[in-house]
Amino acid sequence: MFGGEADQWEGMPMPRIPTPASIEAAPAASQPILHAVEKQLGVVPNLFRLVSNSPAALEGYLALSGALAKGRLPAPTRERIALAVAEINGCSYCLSAHTYLGKNLAKLDDAEMVANRGGGSNDPKAAAAVRFAAKIARDRGHIGDEDLSAVRLAGYDDAQIIEIVQHVALNVWTNYVNEVARTEIDFPVVSVRRAA
């Protein structure tokens, strides 16, 4: 389902934190959670197996992720935010995963995902959310009154604004985990743009 050509791994750094090779190789407390992930997704992506090294972290990640999925931001906007934050933080694992999810689940087209990676959107309302999320990620939450006003003027209420902040935080966490661990990418690889 995921993965790509064998030569995509040439020159990629080796993982620094071992990813359990299977559900059975994960800590016992993580195994039921990973089985639930497998049942829902059909596979267990490397990120989940990596995080399973800490059953508490895996449980927390899935609990927050699941709660936010029930929120008021639509799935395409959540994927747009994930793409913007992954690009800002230079996380090729998350960029690869959310490009796959954006295309196959949220039905975002290539032009939209390019705009998202740049901190915007081709959809005017979504653009306000993505710009706001990118500003939060770049400035570590230190936004101005005008930033908050702009997202409100685009039609986002306080609950949705809080959800945007939480999506940024969740994506920053997965970006950092993957960059610290150098998680092997098990999606079609999309590399972050490196500033010149």
> What profile does the largest beta sheet have?
none
Q: Using DSSP, what is the number of strands? A: 0
Number of H- or I-type helical stretches: 9
End-to-end Cα distance, whole Å, is 34 Å
What string gives the helices and strands in order? HHHHHHHHH
Q: In percent, how much strand structure appears in the residues?
A: under 5%
Query: What would CATH call the architecture of the largest domain?
Result: Up-down Bundle
The CATH topology of the largest domain corresponds to AhpD-like
Number of domains: 2
Unreliable parts: 1-10
| Helical fraction | 55-70%
Assigned CATH superfamily of the largest domain? AhpD-like
Give the class-level CATH name of the largest domain: Mainly Alpha
Residue-averaged pLDDT: 93
Q: Provide the structure class.
A: mainly alpha
Radius of gyration equals 17 Å
Q: Outline, from the CA principal axes?
A: globular
Description:
Residues 55-133 form the Carboxymuconolactone decarboxylase-like domain. With 196 residues, the protein is an all-alpha fold. 59% of the residues lie in helices and 0% in strands. It contains nine helices and no strands. The chain has helices at residues 31-41, 46-51, 55-69, 75-89, 92-104, 110-117, 124-138, 145-153, 158-181. It is globular and about 50 Å long.
